[in-house]
């Protein structure tokens, strides 16, 4: 299976990025994020998203690493239908803890986290979309760990790919070494 990392295009290109040896590296712009309304009361749609067209059902995986230092530094995978309907999952730094994190947005964002002690090095997340549902996993030493099963309406056109943001600063460094898109896996709950 070949990585799609070299086949994307930007929504909100970062100020510094490169594609070398099938790896995407970037440094985020100042105070970038994807978020809509909930709790904070603002809308931000200026995070960095490297994407390819998404089929109506699929399993996508991305392997990534980041230098998480500041509140809300984040990197991972995004599925985007439009500015009001999207999912992002990956690692997000919050209150000194590195979390596996997922935000599901259907008009308004919601955020779920699974706290993990200061993770470092490459991590992998997976998103499976089929039958009006999105199933998110992260990979740990024991295999795939379920993060969430979310209602996500069917779509005609969407995009999928690596994402990074730094809502409190600029210069968050992230890298993406694998990005794969396949037919939905047989049993996406496990």
UniProtKB/TrEMBL annotation:
InterPro entries: ConA-like_dom_sf (IPR013320), DUF1349 (IPR009784), UCP022704 (IPR015987)
Pfam families: DUF1349 (PF07081)
Superkingdom in the source lineage: Bacteria
Protein name as annotated: DUF1349 domain-containing protein
């Amino acid at each position: 299976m070949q990585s799609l990392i070299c086949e994307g295009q930007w929504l909100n290109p970062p100020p510094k990025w490169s594609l070398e040896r099938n790896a995407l590296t970037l440094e985020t712009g100042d105070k970038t994020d994807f978020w809509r309304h909930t709790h904070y009361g603002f809308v931000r749609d200026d995070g960095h998203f490297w994407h390819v067209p998404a089929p109506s059902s699929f399993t996508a995986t991305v392997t990534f690493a980041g230098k998480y230092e500041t509140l809300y530094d984040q990197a991972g995978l995004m599925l985007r239908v439009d500015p009001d309907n999207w999912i992002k999952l990956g690692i997000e730094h919050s209150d000194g803890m590195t979390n596996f994190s997922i935000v599901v947005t259907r008009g308004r964002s919601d955020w779920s986290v699974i706290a993990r002690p200061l993770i470092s090095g490459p991590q992998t997340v997976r998103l499976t979309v089929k039958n009006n549902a999105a199933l998110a996993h992260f990979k740990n030493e024991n295999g795939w760990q379920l993060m969430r099963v979310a209602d996500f309406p069917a779509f005609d056109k969407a995009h999928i790919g690596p994402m990074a943001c730094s809502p409190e600063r600029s210069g968050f460094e992230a890298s993406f070494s694998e990005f794969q898109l396949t037919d939905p896996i047989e049993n996406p709950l496990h």
